[in-house]
Amino acid sequence: MTVGVENPRPPRIGLLWRGERAADPYATPGATRLAPLMAALRELGATVEPVVYEDNSPDAVRDQLLGLDGVLVWVNPIQDGASREYLDALLREVAAKGVWISAHPDVILRLGTKTVLFETRDVGWGSDTDCYRDVAEFRARFPDALVRDGVRVLKQARGNGGNGVWKVTLVEPSAGSAVPGPDALVEVQHALARGDAVPEQLRLGDFIERCSTYFAWSRCLVDQPFQPRLADGLVRCYFVQAEVVGFCHQWPKGLLDPSSDAALRPASDSVFEGPDTPAYQSLRLLAEREWVPKMQQVLDLDTEVLPAIWDADFLYGPQSEQGEDTYVLCEINVSAVWPFPVHAIEKLARVAAAHVTSREFPGSP
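^ that's the sequence the OP posted. Answer follows.
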């Protein structure tokens, strides 16, 4: 049944991405990427509009958004040197006037920043995670975490593609449990470093001061244990709201030892796989039946306000005594989930169409 049956006119759904607004929207990379989704929405009876966003054209974008029933958004937290500050304010404004937005900026703040790693650390996918809200907390507590493990991973709260992600290793562990001071030597490796880049050694106090700039933009730093099985890759689990719709095994190299075999060998191809892929059924069951429901309780997010499309990246944790894999949450991506499996397109289209036709759900969480 098409979604237009219940309404006197077809629902109007926009797909928004960042680009040059003056250009032909159908000639931009965003339109090419999202063409299958546009087609699926039109098959359901929706009218689909590309919405190309620029910070310097807020009035034109606002007028276009207010003429729609709902908007699906693909804009990274940091992209082409710009943040989402102005876009998020605009999306909140049009959502308050009844336009359905996915993902809503307030949902992104709860679910799509690295703070979710700290807030959901007890859900079952978590690890020994801390969150530093300012430089004073970072300076006071990070050395304790570092002496505990010898190596930790720091992440700025808002970022994408490895921006602001550091592996920090204590070069000369203190005797016993002595906390390293500001002059202790650490080795740091940024996730965006080139493959031939050598990790840098510097004093812990100097590194802490270097990271102080992150607080101005992302408001906090999150600190996690380094996962020794990083060379085994990560599993990206895709969701349409609370339902798993696909997987992709990926091979990030940014924090691997640059001289290791895993870092030097060509990465295996990343292939999208369906939700019923046998290798990931234990992860799917844990995610759908335990972890996501518990996450919703912790974050106070009803299923109806979960993003229409989002993903969670899982690193391999230590194997169980039975030799089974365990998983540790690495990050959640909400702002611009692309690419995503073709298996997700039909369900994503139906969820978006249902939101804009039922009008049962508020534009804001």
